[in-house]
Amino acid sequence: MMTLAKGRTGIPPWMSPPSIWVRAVKAIVIVLIVITMIYPLVYVIAMSFAAPSQARAGVVFPTEFSLDAYRAIFNGGTVTQGLLNSLFITVVGTLLSLAATSMLAWGLARTRQVPGAKAVLIMVLATMFFGAGIIPNFMLIKYLGLLDSTWSLIIPGLISAFNMIVIRNFFQGLPEELIEAARIDGAGEWRIFLQIVLPLSKPVLAVMGLFYAVGYWNTYFNALLYINDAEKWPIQVVLQQYVLAGVAIPGAVVSPDQPPPPGVTLQMAVIVLATLPILIVYPFLQRYFTSGVLTGAIKG
Known about the structure:
By secondary structure, the protein is mostly helical. About 65% of the residues lie in helices and about 0% in strands.
């Protein structure tokens, strides 16, 4: 009978602790990866605050800082309007999506009590594998009268099939005895859903809410297709127009008697403003990730 090769310590080589040189190489690689990932973020933030003289000189990392880029952006109003548009789309879209998704998930979690629930579940799952395509979606939005409307960025993606499945699995894991006890006490379906099910589902709702919020905040392609009015552009389209395409931000000046800030500082400031809201919200919801995603995604 073959025996596994063992080292001097009597344990297989892959189970023995690595040598100090191996650990040193791993540490160096991890540090290099961290620097590679953090440096672009630090550079963008630093250049957004760079003084005009240093930005025009093309320094690698500024040592003199100014708020001129942010003053110019907020004076122009275009970026501010884009932020407000994205804020409306994100807040309203997330709330409506959570409401619609949780109600559908609750109905589909009770396949024995709801007639036709399995057929509806199959249709929802089919949307994960088959899509209508760009042209049929555009025609649908046009016939619904949603072209050039902010609602065209909310209604088509109101329910995500994946998010609905996760919430449904979470609902199915709730104690059935608790639901039956509430029903015996005279509670109706809406009262059970609003006062029992939703309070117990805060972890999964928080995670799915973050998923929806990130998706709505990063809305870009649909906005290019459905929105022609620049006043209704979300911040991601503004970011593309004034950063990637290099179009000058209209009215972006600190004051009439001063030249506008360098384009690179304006571009970096727009990137910071477009990224900041998600960076602020994420830490508050991070603690829900393990309990929310794993409990909702695993059914056993």
